[in-house]
Amino acid sequence: MPNNQFKKGELYSFITGKASTAIARRLQKKFNGSGLNVTIEQWSVLYHLWKNDGISQQELCNATFRDKPSITRLVDNLEKSQLVKRVASESDRRINMIFLTKQGQKLEDETMTIAEETLNEALEGISVQNINLCKEILQQVYDNLQ
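^ that's the sequence the OP posted. Answer follows.
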């Protein structure tokens, strides 16, 4: 039985996309205001490298839900900014492992602080119970489509 409680023309993706876009725009504005020369897309790649440095470009694709050409472009730009470096895998030279540079590592604390502030602003006035419920629902939606 259908469980769609949205009115005709009220797309679920529009609602979640609108919130996601608003958060990304605010975060980018704060990065720019702090003199950080990094885009939200680049930051998302750096974020996964801060969690697990030295992963392959394919693993970055999977972690960020981006395709190979997008990750290649992002890594190219991060390399030009000297935030990451590519190293050929020892076991398979066709695979590039992506490592943070010292400069890339230094961005973690400042950008994560700004990201946390931005998320706190976005979630202001929302109870912990509602945040947890939202996370649970969105995870279930994601799981249903996997």
